[in-house]
Amino acid sequence: MKVVFMVAEKPSLAASLATILSNGKNTTRKGFNGACSVHEWVGVFMNAPAKFKMTSVCGHVLGVDFTSKYNSWDRVDPVELFSCPIEKKEAMPKLKMPAFLAQESKGSDNVVLWLDCDKEGENICFEVMGAISNSVMGNVYSSTVTYRARFSAITEKDIKAAFNNLGHPNENEARSVDARQELDLRIGCAFTRFQTKFFQGRYGDLDSTLISYGPCQTPTLGFCVQRHDAIQTFKPETYWCLQVTAISKDGQEMYLDWHRVRSFDKEVANLFLQLVKDQREAKVISVTSKEKVKARPQALNTVELMRVASSGLGMGPHHAMQIAEKLYTQGYISYPRTETTKYPDNFDLHGTLQQQQNSSEWGEEVKEILKSGVNRPKSGHDAGKWKLYFNGYTGC
């Protein structure tokens, strides 16, 4: 009987996948590293009986760093960090992840990688393949040995569809992450060391042992400082405005806006106030009507998800993504990290809505939409990633 080794990106995801793929008939044991469990069951793979082993990593298996020679701030010029050699090291040595994967995959005939469907997940695929290259029976880099499952949601329909339509890891996407990691390391460390030493030399009483630099964090800090300076230099100025309520002949109240909006001169404001008080009636001299149409919303991407969570729910970005990741793992939403704002033409909007119609919160609205006909979302940007959508509802 074939042995098929499967790897997910996190322990909770591995448990969900194993339950779906085994129809709830898997057994579970703890791995020797204490962080990851191994789920086992018997099924069918490529039309043949097979024993399945599903486990997980805990994010990246490896990370990049400089060789020990370049760790000294005093002996190494920061400019050398742009060209010096780098190496890959275990991301979390305490978990012994490469050894754990090698042990659990020993003697396996095939590998199916269930890492998250983004570039980071693609990169982790190759990290896993490197860790088990000497344990799997065949060549782990062969297209007949290792397969890649691509899915956007933890639902039975999506997972079983992915299992029946396996592809292969994308090396180009994995290498793009390697390039990004190397750039982050070289640029971040070089500028961090340079500006820390520079400012410590310039300001002897500097209350900081490290002034870090990051390609994202530094420009963001610049925006924060710019806004802080604007607030600090702002000089408040008193102004006056008129608020008038008019009542029509049929008793309806209307709130009138002052065309001038405000006056910074109190005497001028009082003058206009007195003019209004002296008039008991108002005459409509012109009517202008405008029709406004609210555009259909686009598909939700990660940035818009965080913005809506912040403005509508008062949740910070980090908290919002924590909740989104949890909902994704539990099968309530699709993969939340995406740049795509466009649904494909063949996306099953009707089926997705049907899953929502039993909600006590919005079920009636969903039924009304299904009854009147679905108006497709506005076309957006296709970044080649999964779009974000809801699969079900928590017990409302």
TrEMBL record:
Q: Which GO terms describe its cellular component?
A: nucleus
Keywords tagged on the record: DNA-binding, Isomerase, Topoisomerase
Q: Which GO terms describe its biological process?
A: DNA recombination; DNA repair; DNA topological change
Q: Which PROSITE patterns match?
A: TOPO_IA_1, TOPO_IA_2
Q: Name one GO molecular function term.
A: DNA topoisomerase type I (single strand cut, ATP-independent) activity
Q: Which InterPro entries match?
A: Topo_IA (IPR000380), Topo_IA_2 (IPR003601), Topo_IA_AS (IPR023406), Topo_IA_cen (IPR013497), Topo_IA_cen_sub1 (IPR013824), Topo_IA_cen_sub2 (IPR013825), Topo_IA_cen_sub3 (IPR013826), Topo_IA_core_domain (IPR023405)
- Entry EC number(s): 5.6.2.1
Matching SUPFAM superfamilies: Prokaryotic type I DNA topoisomerase
Swiss-Prot/TrEMBL catalytic activity: ATP-independent breakage of single-stranded DNA, followed by passage and rejoining
Which Gene3D superfamilies does this chain map to?
3.40.50.140, Topoisomerase I, domain 2, Topoisomerase I, domain 3, Topoisomerase I, domain 4
Please list the residue ranges annotated as the Topo IA-type catalytic domain: 170-396
| Entry coiled-coil feature ranges | none
Protein function:
Introduces a single-strand break via transesterification at a target site in duplex DNA. Releases the supercoiling and torsional tension of DNA introduced during the DNA replication and transcription by transiently cleaving and rejoining one strand of the DNA duplex. The scissile phosphodiester is attacked by the catalytic tyrosine of the enzyme, resulting in the formation of a DNA-(5'-phosphotyrosyl)-enzyme intermediate and the expulsion of a 3'-OH DNA strand.
For this chain, the family text in UniProt reads:
Belongs to the type IA topoisomerase family.
Please report the name of this protein according to its UniProt entry: DNA topoisomerase
Organism from which the protein derives: Diabrotica virgifera virgifera
Gene name, per UniProt, is: LOC114333662
